[in-house]
Amino acid sequence: MGYNVAAKVISGEEAVEKIREHEPDLVLMDIKLVGDLDGVEAMQQVRSFTDVPVLYLTGNSDERTRRRAYATDPVAYMVKPVDIALLKKTIKEILD
User: Fold this and answer.
1) Which listed CATH number (1.10.1200.10, 3.40.50.2300, 3.30.70.20, 3.40.50.300) goes with 12-95?
2) pTM score above 0.85
3) 26, 33, 52, 94 - which has most CB atoms within 10 Å?
4) CA–CA separation, 1 vs 8, rounded Å?
């Protein structure tokens, strides 16, 4: 899509670190990550220093996970498998 990717990480801890370091325009966040922090917990920490838009991409569709994620004020919550056309449209709407 022509956007620059600041970082790709596999753990919540790395996500927090890279978001702080790069100050991205958008975060695409999975919920199930390696390490002690899942994606929601990582975004809870991120919210202490930035209001960067977050778009969750996850295989977790249960109500408890959704409620936890929505508490971090995401711009979108998409359940995998994600429709690529919808993902691209959503990213474009957020960034343009």
Assistant:
1) 3.40.50.2300
2) yes
3) 33
4) 16
